[in-house]
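Human: Cast an eye over this sequence-structure pair and say how the chain folds.
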Amino acid sequence: MSLACWAAGDIFIPVEIEEDDIYTGIYKVLQTIRPDWPAERINFKLFTDGITNKLIACHLNNEIGEGNDVMLVRIYGNKTDLLIDRTAEIRNITTLNVLGLAPKIYGVFKNGLVYEYYPGVTLNVNSVVDTKIATKVAQQMAKMHKVQLGREIKEEPMLWDKIEQFLCLIPESFTEKVKQIRFANSFGSVTRLRIEFERLKLRLINTESPIVFAHNDLLLGNVIYNESKGTVSFIDYEYAAYNYQAFDIANHFNEYVGLSIDDIDYNRYPSKEYQMFWIRTYLSDYLSRDPSETEVEKVFKEVQQMSLASHFMWGVWSLVQYELSEIDFDFGKYAEIRLKRYYEQKDKIFSEPK
């Protein structure tokens, strides 16, 4: 990461945290951000050993809670800079923090950042459907969708360029023969995926869904619920950018089906009745008035179509990770799940009357 990647006011620490010795690196980072913290009193808690990042909480007290000084250290996954614009990520977090919509960044190091801890719990497949919590998620998304970036940032949907970027990163031939065989059996070829992408783009490019500043990766683990305050907060803005309103909503609904690769169950996908409630709640805040049933139905239909784009984008993303990532996660299986769902749903969704 170059110094150009950090925003004015952020502390840059010229440290790269090594994958096989993360705590030595974290100590070095904290020496700059919290020089008054005695090293022998610092406690660590691994929050996520995720499929792309590691997230570690650092604190002095025995317990992590409200009122304690807690630092979250996020270490980027190997080669994820090929997929994510880190300059834009830090700019977006800084912009949203001023508006109370994102955590404060305390410092940036070569392969990660340190930011504010939000007390609470991440959502799961049960809590996300709680109408009280869902209402707050919908309202928080509406607030984010009203954010305007500077005039130098074009209000264009990130979707098509991002999928194109991912497609370009899929190798014509995987380095491991067993992976290449599996890819060929499950997906055919990169050319076949490209043809399918062009078909999808042709169907969706003329959508009337508004362009908004979107999170684009609102999986359950990226929503923090603070029960005592009755609030929800969003985290991890790696893919935040202008995009279609309906994509952000659809992408969130697609995450209702499960948190882990072995727990995905499409019977959990929200019903039309639930989606209409959620969209109505969202539009009430986004439009600052009660929406008509026609307006709610219109967004619902756009969301169904954009759910296909969500499946396709993350399926292709997973194929890139299948080649590049060194993390112990079956990206091939995840790609199969998402793209299988895409192919299963596309004829049904596109055949429905407008």
